[in-house]
Amino acid sequence: MTSVSPDIKLPTREEAVIAELIARNATATPDKVFALFPGDIEWTCARTAEETWRWGNALAGLGAEFGDCISVWIPTSPDILGAWFGANAIGAIYAPLNLAARGSFLEHTL
Fold first, then answer.
1. How would DSSP label each residue in 64-81?
2. Measured between alpha carbons, how far is 33 from 40 in angstroms, rounded to an integer?
3. How far apart are alpha carbons 107 and 35 in whole angstroms?
4. Confidence (pTM)
5. Spatial contact of 60 and 5, defined as CB atoms under 8 Å apart
6. 56 contacts 86 by C-beta, under 8 angstroms
7. pLDDT tens digits for the chain (110 residues)?
8. How far apart are CA 104 and CA 51, in angstroms?
9. b vs e for 57-96, b when ≥16 Cβ sit within 10 Å of the residue's Cβ?
10. Cβ(99)–Cβ(77) below 8 Å
């Protein structure tokens, strides 16, 4: 399992539960299937933890911090789950965007 960079302050369990659950599942049942995606892509609990920290480290590397809102505007894919879990793992707030959003709806979402 990939871990977070040492210079990133992690939220407490009370602040972000998802990261703790992912870490616990990766340790207890690393080979258990956690998520299935189209195209026969599956993430085990261990892979989910790896993707969570890959995204968390990437977002933190871009300057995301605890309490920041993180918006992504990407097609439905495993990356959406990675962005959601990674944002939560660093204590940020995941605020996805709908690719169909336009005009005032998109403006409101942002």
1. --TT-EE-----SSHHHH
2. 12
3. 32
4. 0.79
5. yes
6. yes
7. 445 566 666 666 666 688 889 999 999 999 999 999 999 999 999 999 999 999 999 999 999 999 999 988 888 889 999 999 999 999 999 988 877 888 888 887 77
8. 33
9. bebbeeebeeeeebebeeeeebeebbbbbbbbbbbbebee
10. no
